[in-house]
Amino acid sequence: MEEHAAPFEYRLMLNEIKARIKSSQSKAALAVNRSLILLYWNIGKVISEKQAEHSWGSRIIDQLSKDLKAEFPGISDFSSRNLWDTRRFYLFYCNEILRQAVAELDFPKNIADNVTHYVAEEFENQDFVIVRQLLAEIPWGHHLLILNKVSDPKAALFYICQIIENNWSRSVLSLHIEQKLFDSQGKALSNFKETLPAQQALLAQQILKDPYNFSFLALESHVQELDLEKQLTEQITRFLLELGKGFAFLGRQFPIKVGEKEYFLDLLFYHIRLRCFIVIELKVTEFEPEYAGKMNFYLSVIDDLLKDASDQPTIGILLCKNKTSLEVEYALRGINKPIGVSEFTLTEALPEELKSSIPTVEEFEEEINRISGHRSDDKNLA
Q1: Where does the record place the YhcG N-terminal domain (predicted)?
Q2: pTM above 0.90, yes or no
Q3: Distance CA 264, CA 361 (A)
């Protein structure tokens, strides 16, 4: 074939080859990381067991580091500090508490389905195959961050699953640990079990937190609802990160018309994983029972006007400054639409600026900017 005789076909071929190369590079990088993490596990295991067996003190680590550096001069992973970290890594994840943690954690299906045989071959104890698989899937730098900031093995495994599922950078991981995502996840009050199919109810409860932390906003405690809503949408990237993966922003003060009257939803989202619309109403006061009734009304309208046959029922989230659990339970009893109630905080210390963001933000950033630009004029709350 003559050169440049078929440029379109050539570009197709070039793109296919480039894609295969990139895929191969990615797989190679993952394989290298898995091998490295397994190596660190085994080094930590040997150090821990030999120290216990021979009653060796801390000087043995310094000597080991010196000898390994002499044998492998081109490798920088054998500093005394890193050897201590491998020992810490092994001891943290090899304890019996993990048996209960593994049984209680709802591992992502893609992780549980892909437990590879090489992990089983590396370890004698088959009970921890899934855990070892998880450990081998994330970089060493993420492991060190977890070891330094998380003391509960169950919480550590939760964060590891989130890293794998959401592709978190270290800065995003650090933020979620600081804001205690593990403690707040799935803790909000809701009627999801009574109003949604079992699997949908479980997923919906998992994405709902209590409390939500809006301390990245420069607001006083006595903030007006419109000011809170405006700043949340102005910092939509940070707000989406606090909400969690899967939220696509559709609009602020979203108009819905019922007969001759028009109502405005504080914030409207679509959740990719749940495949449903989500209405969020912001209240800067303590929860009042009538809030649930009004949310029930909004959800009925959205289900009628926007929900497609392939969509799941619309979910409502009420974010209030405070709430009383018993009052929320009574207010939600008898309501047939799925509603969750959470608190939010404004007064905690401002976290460090994020250097990267979760994939959901990147995917919807352009659409968010477009929608925000079209809705620059504030409307009064109904």
Answers
A1: 16-110, 121-183
A2: no
A3: 24
